[in-house]
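User: two proteins, same treatment. go.

Assistant:
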Amino acid sequence: MAIDDKTRTELEAAVFRRLVQHLRSRTDVQNIDLMNLAGFCRNCLSNWLKEEADAKGAAMSKDDSREAVYGMPYETWKASFQEKASPEQLATMKKAESGH
C-alpha cells in the first residue's frame, strides 16, 4: 500500500490516540504487567512523547507528557489505580531487565 507522508503521519497519530485511549480505559492493567509482557508501559509512552517534543523544541514537561498519556496527573492515577506489585511481578521484571 502506497500512501503519502502526510496521510501516514495522520494515521500513525490516530493509532497513537487510540492506544492511549485504550490504556486509559484499562486501568485494571498495571504498568508492571505491560512491562513484563510487552517491554513498555504508560510511562514509556509518556517518556517517548516528551523526548519527541524535546527533539522538536516543543515545551513539554515530564508531568505534561504523563498527563497526556494518563488523562490525569500521574500522582492521581497512581493513587486511584496502581496496585502494589506482587513478588512474582517484581521477579519477572527483574528477570527481564527491561531497563524500567
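Protein 2:
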Amino acid sequence: MAENGRRLLLVHAHPDDETIATGGTIARYAAAPDTHVTLVTCTLGERGEVMVPELAGLAAEHADQLGGYRMGELAAARAALGLSDQRFLGGVGRWRDSGMVVLAGGRAGAPPPGELHPRAFCAPGARAEQVEALAKVMAEVRPQVVVGYDPSGGYGHPDHVRAHEITMAATATAPSVRKVYWTVLPHGALFDGLEGLAGAREHGLPWRPAEPEELASVPDSSVTTRVDVSAVLGAKLAALRAHATQLGVWEHAGQRAFALTNELAQPVLATEYFTLVGARVDAGRGSLDETDLFEGVEPS
C-alpha cells in the first residue's frame, strides 16, 4: 500500500458492478504511480440471473452455487484491471445478494421483507454492522477518495441503495477521507453512446440497443468529474468479459457494447462520470471540468 501516496476506495454491491460502472477508473488509478486502489464488494451476487445457458444450474433457484462462481469471475476481472486489493464486506459470504423485483420503467425494488434471506444485504437490521465493517476497512486503508453510489443506487436495486447508505455513513466519520463521489451516467453521454450503436445490428450486434429511458441516467448538470479511461479500455473490456455469467460484450470497428441478461445493448464509454458530493478540500468542489478524482488532494 502507498503509505504516503494516494489511496482510492470504491464500494460496490455485487461482482461485475465494479467493472460496469468504474472499471476504467480502477484500471487507470491501479496503474498510476504511488496510488493504491481498494475495492470493497458487499455480496457475492448469489441472486443474479445467468447469461450463459449451460451455467443456468448455478442460479439461486437451482444449485445456489452462483456466488462462488462469481468470486472466480471477480478474481479474473481484478487481474484484468490490475487491481490487487479487493475485500468482501465483513468477510466472504457474510452478506447475501438480496435480489430485487422489477418495477415500472425497468427500475428495481426490494423484495417483500418476508422473502429476504436472513443474510440479505438490505435486511433492515443489518445496517449498523455493515457500517462498522466498512469503517474498519477505511481505518486500515485510510483512503483520501471514496467512490460509491447515489441515493437511488443508480437504478434502485436495494443492495445498491444500502451500499450508498453505509458508504455515506462510514465516510462521515473517517478522518482520512477528503473527497466522496457518486458514480453516475449523464443523460448526454448515454444518448450519444446509444446513438453510436445505431446500425450496429447490421455488423453483428446480437442485442437490441436500449432506449434511453430504459437505462438509469442523471442530468448532465449534476456531473462534476469526467475521468478519461480511453487508454485502459482494453482492460475494462477484458474485465467485462470475465463476468461472463452476467453479461456479454461486443466490439466492431471501434464500436463497443455490452448487455446484461435483459439483452439490452449499452455502450462502453471512454469516459466514466462522477458527482462530487463531499469534500474537505476546496479544489474541484462543484467544478464541471474536473478530470482527476484526486484533484486538490495532497498525498499523505
